[in-house]
């Protein structure tokens, strides 16, 4: 690319730590860190108030694509809040604002204005309290782009962990782990590991659903009836798949050395180990979208909002990874398979 790519960063829940970790993007020490232009989507007055309260020296400048980056200056694409904000205090009135940030970043990615979007954390509960059904960035962006299935993958601490199901109550997981869901997730993961990470034939470690991967059917038959038939079909196509593996030993070093990424069946099965290994430096990547989207791996941390103690490390890594993905390859079209199921975790 002849010009540096533009990365849109949404500032997330205004009462959380998102605005202040975004302010850190103006830090002089970061001037040479990113081979890209960064624009933060936020209410400009919110950023100014948070910067003043934290005694954080930076200049907030209206985003214009023609302007060159300046040390100590944060380019801001202003979207107005609906209500005043106090750090740590949620207000459902601002939930439409939070989604407007996502919509504007997505529109910019789809039009080519932005090369990728990086998201600071949102608070699912307060968005739902506003009467807006919302189960997460992953599902929201899938619906907005009419993508039949996307895959949540977290990366950090030397691990990459993707999920068949995401934000579901645990009691609903077994019914959602179908052959179609497992197969489509593996196809997206295989394809996107090549497109976004440059691994042409990724080795994927696949977890079972039940303790001890079902213990030969004594602890559940999903491994026998659902997961194994899919693995056998895809191995016949040339995919390098190991499993189904017992989740309690899958993250041991000898097994991890045999894979490039892990596929877990549900949220906590895979992400507990990853967040233990990488918390504060891990990132979330949405695979399967027609755009590039990465995110922090943490929540809004309301108890830290306004304290100045929030660590921007995950946001910085998410931006770096998005830039690398932009440089590596153009985004791919979403998977469209005849008869394919909808995203099971919505």
Structure in words:
With 346 residues, the chain is α/β, with parallel strands linked by helices. The protein has two domains: 1-147 and 289-340, Isopropylmalate Dehydrogenase, CATH 3.40.718.10; 151-287, Isopropylmalate Dehydrogenase (3-Layer(aba) Sandwich), CATH 3.40.718. 34% of the residues lie in helices and 17% in strands. The chain is built from eleven helices and twelve strands. It has helices at residues 18-23, 44-53, 95-111, 124-129, 137-144, 173-176, 179-197, 222-236, 253-256, 267-278, 313-328, and strands spanning 6-10, 37-42, 59-62, 73-78, 116-119, 151-156, 159-163, 203-207, 240-245, 261-264, 283-287, 293-296. The chain has a twelve-stranded mixed β-sheet, sandwiched between helices. Strand 8, helix 8 (222-236) and strand 9 (240-245) form a beta-alpha-beta unit. Helix 7 (179-197) crosses helix 8. The longest helix is centred in the middle third of the chain and has 19 residues, at 179-197. Its main location: cytoplasm. Catalyzes the NAD(P)-dependent oxidation of 4-(phosphooxy)-L-threonine (HTP) into 2-amino-3-oxo-4-(phosphooxy)butyric acid which spontaneously decarboxylates to form 3-amino-2-oxopropyl phosphate (AHAP). Its cofactor is Zn(2+); Mg(2+); Co(2+). GO terms for molecular function: 4-hydroxythreonine-4-phosphate dehydrogenase activity. A divalent metal cation binds at residues 167, 212, 267.
């Amino acid at each position: 690319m002849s010009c540096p790519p533009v990365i849109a960063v949404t500032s997330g829940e205004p009462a959380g730590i998102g605005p202040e970790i975004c302010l850190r993007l103006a830090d002089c020490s970061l001037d040479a860190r990113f081979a890209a232009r960064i624009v933060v989507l936020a209410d400009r007055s919110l950023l100014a108030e948070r910067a003043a309260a934290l005694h954080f020296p930076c200049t907030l400048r209206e985003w214009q694509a023609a302007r060159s980056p300046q040390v100590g200056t944060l380019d801001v694409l202003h979207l107005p809040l609906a209500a005043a904000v106090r750090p740590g205090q949620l207000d459902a009135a601002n939930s439409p604002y939070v989604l407007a940030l996502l919509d504007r970043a997505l529109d910019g990615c789809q039009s080519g204005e932005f090369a990728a979007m990086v998201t600071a954390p949102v608070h699912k509960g307060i968005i739902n309290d506003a009467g807006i059904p919302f189960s997460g960035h992953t599902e929201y962006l899938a619906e907005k782009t009419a993508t039949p299935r996307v895959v949540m993958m977290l990366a950090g601490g030397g691990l990459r962990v993707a999920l068949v199901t995401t934000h579901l109550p645990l009691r609903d997981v077994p019914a959602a782990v179908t052959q179609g869901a497992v197969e489509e997730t593996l196809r997206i993961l295989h394809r996107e590991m090549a497109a976004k990470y440059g691994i042409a034939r990724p080795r994927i470690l696949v977890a079972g659903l039940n303790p001890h991967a079902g213990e030969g059917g004594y602890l559940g038959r999903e491994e026998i009836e659902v997961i194994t038939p899919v693995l056998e079909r895809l191995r016949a196509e040339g995919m390098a798949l190991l499993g189904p593996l017992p989740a309690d030993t899958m993250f041991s070093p000898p097994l991890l050395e045999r894979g490039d990424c892990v596929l877990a069946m549900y949220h906590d099965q895979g992400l507990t180990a990853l967040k233990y290994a990488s918390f504060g430096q891990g990132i979330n990547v949405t695979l399967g979208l027609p755009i590039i989207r990465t995110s922090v791996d943490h929540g809004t941390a309301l108890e830290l909002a306004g304290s100045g103690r929030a660590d921007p490390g995950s946001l910085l890594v998410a931006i770096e990874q998005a830039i690398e993905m932009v440089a590596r390859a153009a985004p791919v079209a979403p998977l469209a398979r005849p008869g394919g199921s909808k995203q099971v975790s919505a």
